[in-house]
Amino acid sequence: MPNSELPIVPAAPAATDLVPPTRWLTLDRLQGLIDLLWAREYRVIGPQIRSGAIVYDELRHQDELPKGWTEEQSAGKYRLRQRQDDQRFGYNLGPHSWKQYLFPSRIVVGTAQRDDRGWRFDDPPQETPAYAFLGVRACELAAIAVQDRTMIHDQYADPIYAERRQRALIIAVNCSQAANTCFCTSMDTGPRCRSGFDLALTELETGFTVEIGSPRGAEIAETLSLREARQAESDSADERCARAVAQISKRLDTTDIRDLLLDNLEHPRWNDVAQRCLSCTNCTLVCPTCFCCSVSEASDLQGDRVERLRQWDSCFNSEISYMNGDLVRRDIRSRYRQWLTHKLATWHDQFDSSGCVGCGRCITWCPVGIDLTEEVAAIREDQP
Question: What is the pTM of this model?
């Protein structure tokens, strides 16, 4: 569908635009913000603890937030542990990304109904909730921007994604700590939120500094009568963001990374990683930018109604490369190479950006602990 027929996601304010003053939200008024969003018919989605992980789900009360909890993350490992304070956003990232709400994992995109006059084909009416995302991190803002480029601002756009994205309100939270798997500084995507949000919070002991990033955000701040943040509060917020930068130890050297990977398609490291990779698809399912999907059709028992379903897929599934009666990528080596070279190299050719935002989810949730930064470094080390 041409882009002109789709709603346009507003661009982030230019750096030269007048920046509204930072505001202050006390801890006891966080619930007021949540209540206001529900009153305006936003469906608030925020972090909470489920099944031993911090996930995103419908949020009605601030007590549902993971207060006093954080995670320990490393390659192939994720564990919750209690903090020494009551921070509500004192964690990094769990297995969920906001992609599941903007680009649903399973959705009906077409129907066919047979009656006395023959077959009738319809586009099913889509439920398009107005989401308010609470707790979006800087790398996740970057991931949403990557998906915007892929789903909206490309030659062909996805109307389902575009409508959900247009209606979404984004309340970001700046990171005050980093996990061992974070490498957002290498990708220039964090840990501080710079654009793409309506409001951005930084959590302190007694409240939150509130940065305004859009007219919608400014109107919410005015409705809540938020006072201007004091200098000491803003300074403390800056210190917390700087602390997160200092904690990031993982690096990905992106210098000429496209040519590095594409010039080394027969490097022995691909065989090495293939011996470890399970082709389980975990990395692609937790990735906030992967968009592979497949389409299937299912009929009722009478054969009079057919639904066309779109659901998430993965380049690690062999069947996704099936064409002309055969599989293009038969082995794990070729499938891992396809994933990594697309994410870090040919994504630049398609969309003028990297497909990686440095969130580290693929490292944490790989059951055998494969670290893409180490794979790239191993190839780079062999270069003359």
Answer: 0.92
